[in-house]
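Listing S7. Sequence submitted for prediction.
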Amino acid sequence: MIKRCVLSALVALFLLSGCAAHFYRIEGDAVHLYLRNPDATTVLFASSLDGYEFHEAKKVKTGLWEVTAPAEREFRYFYVINGEVLLPPCEMKEKDDFGSENCIYSPGM
């Protein structure tokens, strides 16, 4: 019974998270942000670091995309995948001026 409940909870979490997964790794003075989305053909990254200009993410392997930003500065960000805005699962979010949300990267979080 407990196994079935745990399995049901895991399946529910997977379904609620959609097909995108998001994580980051700090290396030296850079933060490498990764987005896993097997359906993506183009991934753009926009952040408060430069007024939300779009930057193409680098495809590092099938379904995995990477962008790099300074690790020592806090910034807000989001992605555009195949022309549609995506806010990945992230620890900290805030509402923007347009009624949407942005993820927040904060050093040391």
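Caption to Listing S7: primary sequence and predicted structure tokens for the chain studied. The chain is about 15% helix and 45% strand. The helical segments are 2-17.
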